[in-house]
């Protein structure tokens, strides 16, 4: 039995005893926290649409495009606050940032049930957008601070998968609440939705206060012993740049990482817009499928998204390289979009295309991990690029569907399918360019963190040495990185 457990542990966390001890603790504290928060994020956002169609519209007097204004107010503030949110994590301990943000957005969700006018809900959504902005990009930033190239992809995939599950389950949870709580305590069902979702979020936020280990340099995780805290720093190494000064703007704006990774992520987001905006449901309605089928069949897209995300992440971790699976994803963009552009004669062709394209949600894990791989040498570059990847994406996806997937065009979205083919195909040359620049800079020793012995850290094939402890001296502290230098 002991040998079986050891083989399982090696399979999960690798052959190195120190890595296994560290990763086994992180995977039951840090990773579950971010995954649960992202799951509840999906449920929370679904609560507004469910409440709107379940009585909130009439009760608060929503008129005209006010529901759209509510969503837009949220998205604009959410996008604007992403770079400040990730940058804040470099100067304030993540525990304080995340728990404050989580509790604030859950309280804002809770008090929504007390609102009496539509403008109040619009305002609350705008404020909530600011506090929830750190949830996605901040999680990627912290995960990239603890896990190596051979470990990060699958952890990022688990995190993203919980978001897909939250989106899938959000509607089911709301439906159950509507059926079981309508009229209870004299409250309409739509108010109960906000109360229950908020109550679900608060305990997870408090879980984060106990189990978020901040960043390795803080040595703040109570569940790690002294040796594990030192090893967490030594195995990844220190960034070469880690101070906020005027050089940050030059380093960031003149880096290829800041521009190219967000650009291909934006192309990906535009390509998969046919999986959003009820496109599949509109097509099914035109073919005579029932309302139940129109709601159920599109959830299969999220099932293939989960499979694709995990599969590509595992492969990229094993290869310790992201470009190979990125090319496969790019080719899938082209194949799936081409099927839709060709207007298949059978329904099966459409289903194959939609479900195949579902696997291309994988960049949410793979490309954020790739970004962490190529920016680990510069603390501020990694923080700012992490936030910029999502905010740059939002700058386009907020208006793209209005042109290429307007509801008035349903069920014929041929123009949108062509646009998806073009944007998907464009990812391929830029993936090749990023792969070339990464190879060039690694060969020149320009990127990659610095280990305690001065070598490049963070790759499994390099042996890491750890300095000996002395009285009052922390184990495995790499050069040029101290908590006081980060102003924490």
From TrEMBL:
InterPro entries: MFS, MFS_trans_sf. The keyword Cell cycle does not apply. GO terms for biological process: pantothenate import across plasma membrane. Keywords: Membrane, Transmembrane, Transmembrane helix, Transport. Its main location: membrane. It is a multi-pass membrane protein. It is found in: Membrane. GO terms for cellular component: plasma membrane. Residues 458-479 are annotated as: Disordered. It holds the Pfam family MFS_1. The keyword Transmembrane applies. Gene3D superfamilies: MFS general substrate transporter like domains. The chain crosses the membrane at residues 28-48, 68-89, 96-113, 119-144, 156-177, 189-212, 258-277, 297-315, 327-344, 350-371, 383-405, 417-437. One of its GO terms (molecular function) is pantothenate transmembrane transporter activity. This is Pantothenate transporter. It comes from Penicillium argentinense.
């Amino acid at each position: 039995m002991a040998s079986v457990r050891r083989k399982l542990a090696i399979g999960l966390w690798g052959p190195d005893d120190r890595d296994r001890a560290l990763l086994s603790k992180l995977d039951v504290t840090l990773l579950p926290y971010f995954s649960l928060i992202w799951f509840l994020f999906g449920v929370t956002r679904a609560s507004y649409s469910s409440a709107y169609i379940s009585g909130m519209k009439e009760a608060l007097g929503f008129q005209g495009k006010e529901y759209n204004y509510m969503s837009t107010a949220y998205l604009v503030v959410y996008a604007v606050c992403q770079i400040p949110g990730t940058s804040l994590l470099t100067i304030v301990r993540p525990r304080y940032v995340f728990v404050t943000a989580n509790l604030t957005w859950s309280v804002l969700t809770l008090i929504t049930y007390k609102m009496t006018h539509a403008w109040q809900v619009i305002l609350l959504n705008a404020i909530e957008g600011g506090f929830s902005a750190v949830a996605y990009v901040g999680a990627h930033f912290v995960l990239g601070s603890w896990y190596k190239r051979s470990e990060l992809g699958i952890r990022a995939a688990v995190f993203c998968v919980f978001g897909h599950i939250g989106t899938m389950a959000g509607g089911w949870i709301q439906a159950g609440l509507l059926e079981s709580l309508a009229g209870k305590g004299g409250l309409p069902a739509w108010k109960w939705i906000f109360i229950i979702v908020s109550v679900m979020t608060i305990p997870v936020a408090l879980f984060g206060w106990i189990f978020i280990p901040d960043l390795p340099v803080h040595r703040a995780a109570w569940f790690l012993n002294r040796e594990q805290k030192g090893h967490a720093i030594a195995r990844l190494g220190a960034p070469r740049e880690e101070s906020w000064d005027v050089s940050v703007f030059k380093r960031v704006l003149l880096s290829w990482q800041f521009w190219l990774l967000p650009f291909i992520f934006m192309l990906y987001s535009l390509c998969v817009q046919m999986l959003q905006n009820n496109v599949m449901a509109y097509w099914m309605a035109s073919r005579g499928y029932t309302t139940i089928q129109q709601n159920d069949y599109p959830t299969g897209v999220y099932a293939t998204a989960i499979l694709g995300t995990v599969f590509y992440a595992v492969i990229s971790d094993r290869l310790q390289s992201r470009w190979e699976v990125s090319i496969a994803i790019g080719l899938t963009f082209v194949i799936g979009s081409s099927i839709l552009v060709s207007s298949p004669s059978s329904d099966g062709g459409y289903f194959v295309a939609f479900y195949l394209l579902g696997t291309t949600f994988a960049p949410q894990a793979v490309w954020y991990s790739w970004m962490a791989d190529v920016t680990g040498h510069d603390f501020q570059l990694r923080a700012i690029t992490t936030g910029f990847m999502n905010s740059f994406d939002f700058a386009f996806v907020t208006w793209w569907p209005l042109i290429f997937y307007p509801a008035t065009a349903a069920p014929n979205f041929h123009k949108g399918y062509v646009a998806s083919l073009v944007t998907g195909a464009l990812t391929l040359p830029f993936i090749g360019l990023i792969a070339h620049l990464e190879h060039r800079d690694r060969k020149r020793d320009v990127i990659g963190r610095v280990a305690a012995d001065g070598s490049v850290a963070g790759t499994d094939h390099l042996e890491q040495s750890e300095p000996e402890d002395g009285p009052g001296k922390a184990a495995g502290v790499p050069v040029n990185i101290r908590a006081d230098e980060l102003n924490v």
